[in-house]
Design goal:
Layout lengths: L1 H6 L4 H15 L14 E4 L3 H13 L3 E6 L7 H4 L3 E4 L6 H5 L2 H10 L4 E3 L9 H9 L3 E2 L4 H8 L1 H10 L15 H11 L3 E5 L8 E4 L5 H16 L4 E5 L5 E9 L5 E13 L2 E7 L6 H17 L4 E9 L5 E7 L6 H8 L3 H10 L18 E8 L1 E2 L5 E2 L2 E2 L2 E3 L6 E5 L7 E2 L6 E9 L2 H14 L1 E3 L5 H8 L2 H5 L22 H15 L1
Parallel strand pairs: 1-2, 1-4, 2-3, 4-5
Antiparallel strand pairs: 6-7, 6-8, 9-10, 9-12, 10-11, 11-14, 12-13, 14-21, 15-16, 17-20, 18-22, 19-21
This protein binds adenosine-5'-diphosphate (2 copies) and magnesium ion.
One adenosine-5'-diphosphate (ADP) binds next to strand 6, strand 12 and strand 13.
């Protein structure tokens, strides 16, 4: 439905006139009389699969695409998939290049870029970057800089949640500045507790403390980790919830105060607080709880006049109580599963909202959003599960993927001959399986994973296969401690083809004689 609206580019002028007219009738304030400004060229300030994901959406909407790449990424696929590509961060280390705001803005200005999509990670949740875009007259495809700032500060986001009437995990309402404050918190609330980086993300900068004796050491470690990873050591403390489910709600807002949700995802399957497998919708979720989660998310978003796509994350404890943990003010890695079950292209929506379209105009009304079946996403990484998930690098000598009905693959470097470098995130391909229910989607996923043949670089596929065949997973009853508590997931049966088996056999024969 979104596509149809997007397809009528010849009617844009007409829409713009209608927009101003309808806004003058329905706007809450005069300042909301905004006009529709089409986007003709988009730059993605990111790399890998997410850059390509956004380019694809742009191309579908007739928008020209611009890639930026680091020196280390000269041979990477996202460069090829854009209409134009420019080097940034010359002479800089690999990650620093994608964080170099002046270079990114310069390329945007010099090449008539209308809007920048930040992807996830890198600059996506940096308010100073959103502001730099605005200052340069380039639109930032995301919330306003002020909202990015509020949401990026987890302590402030908690306070906003509280004022919107959303329950939060019991925790300190300001960053702590001494070990003593952590001790006071644990005296009042007891153990276990978790130290969290106030400006953290990506599962990093978190430490669980189960007893008093471990408090000091973990405080010091969490502080140094946060400082190293986020350039700011500020920590806060939360009560650690035992065996919760991680359930998050996808939201979309426009420039006119409309906010809708696109239901939830269950991201409980995590390793080291990082998501590995995501499912939409959540299985066996009490409908009343679903209503509370979605209503709380929409209320929170309204509280800050949230614009564009975002995610409100919650933990749900064993008693079905839910607690807000954070907002990710960007597109998430696992947005795909929501797209599969709702049939809404979230990147199209992001672009249209940024142009000034309203959600109703895009056909995105709450009562039109329906859940259709189930979708599962596996993050296939170039990590070796047999060696503690150490990232592996090298050339993909063989690469054959699992495809066919019900399978979607979002990737950048997943092809024979691709070079997997050590410089960036180890995500190789996102495999998304859809089906009418969880067993149907799981069967598609297992079948697709079994079809993969990757040689030259190790992947976590054998581990994912174990997850997919686990009964607890199939029953839909996993919590965030599922991986830690199921050691049999680490029993990896190497998948061998006939030639390898023969070589193995001959090798043994030689060794034994
Ligand atoms: P999602 O919530 O979309 O699943 P993740 O939390 O897995 O996203 O993070 C997405 C990517 O962004 C990962 O590569 C992660 O390492 C990175 N990331 C997330 N937050 C930050 C941050 N604050 N600083 C640096 N990298 C981050
Ligand atoms: P990040 O910004 O790194 O994504 P989050 O606050 O979203 O950090 O937490 C990531 C994960 O860490 C959660 O999904 C959950 O598994 C775990 N976690 C975070 N806070 C708590 C808590 N208070 N109790 C239990 N687990 C938690
Ligand atoms: Mg999170």
């Amino acid at each position: 439905m979104l596509l149809q609206v997007g397809g009528k580019r010849s009617a844009l002028g007409l829409l713009a006139i209608r927009r101003v007219w309808s806004m003058s009738r329905s706007a809450h304030t005069a300042s909301q009389t905004l006009e529709y400004k089409p986007i003709k060229k988009v730059m993605v300030a990111n790399r890998g699969e997410i850059a390509i994901r956004v380019f694809r959406a742009c191309t579908e909407l007739g928008i020209r695409t611009v890639a930026v790449y680091s020196e280390q990424d000269t041979g990477q696929m996202h460069r090829q998939k854009a209409d134009e590509a420019y080097l940034i961060g010359k002479g800089l280390p690999p990650v620093a290049a994608y964080l170099h705001i002046p270079d990114i803005i310069k390329v945007a200005k010099e090449n008539d870029v209308d809007a920048i999509h930040p992807g996830y990670g890198f600059l996506s949740e940096r308010a100073d970057f959103a502001q730099a875009c605005v200052d340069a007259g380039v639109r930032f495809i995301g919330p306003t800089p002020d909202v990015v700032r509020k949401m990026g500060d987890k302590v402030e986001a908690r306070a906003i949640a509280t004022s919107a009437g959303v329950p939060v995990v019991p925790g300190t309402d300001a960053p702590i500045s001494s070990l003593q404050e952590a001790q006071e918190f644990s005296n009042s609330y007891g153990f276990p507790i978790i130290f969290k980086a106030a400006y953290g993300g990506g599962g990093r900068g978190m430490r669980v403390v189960r007893e008093y004796e471990e408090l000091e050491e973990n405080y010091q470690r969490a502080y140094s980790e946060a400082l190293a990873a986020f350039g700011n050591g500020a920590l806060f403390v939360e009560k650690f919830i035992e065996k919760p489910r991680h359930i998050e709600v996808q939201i979309l807002g426009d420039k006119y105060g409309n906010v809708i949700h696109l239901y939830e995802r269950d991201c409980s399957i995590q390793r080291r607080h990082q998501k590995v497998v995501e499912i939409a919708p959540a299985t066996q979720l009490d409908p009343h709880l679903r209503d509370r989660l979605t209503a709380d998310s929409v209320n929170l978003a309204r509280q800050v006049s949230y614009e564009n796509a975002g995610t409100v994350e919650f933990l749900v404890d064993k008693h079905g109580k839910h607690y807000f943990i954070e907002v990710n003010s960007r597109l998430q890695v696992e947005h795909t599963v929501t797209e599969e079950i709702t049939d809404v292209d979230l990147v199209h929506a992001q672009l249209r909202v940024c142009e000034g379209r309203s959600l109703p105009e895009l056909g995105l009304k709450q009562d039109k959003i329906r859940i259709n079946g189930y979708a599962i996403q596996c993050r296939v990484t170039t990590e070796d599960p047999a060696r503690g998930f150490q990232p592996d690098t090298g050339r993909l000598e063989v690469f054959r993927s699992g495809e066919g009905m019900g399978i979607r693959l979002d990737s950048a470097s997943a092809f024979q001959g691709a070079v997997i470098s050590p410089h960036y995130d180890s995500l190789l391909v996102k495999v998304i399986a859809s089906g009418k229910d969880l067993p149907a989607a799981s069967a598609k996923m297992s079948r697709a994973l079994a079809e993969f043949r990757v040689r030259g670089v190790k992947t976590n596929i054998p581990f994912l296969q174990n997850v997919l065949s686990n009964n607890q997973f199939l029953n839909g009853t996993v919590d965030t401690q599922f991986i830690d508590e199921n050691q049999d997931l680490f029993n990896l049966k190497p998948v061998q083809n006939r030639a390898q088996k023969l070589l193995h056999y001959l090798g043994n024969l030689l060794l034994n004689n």
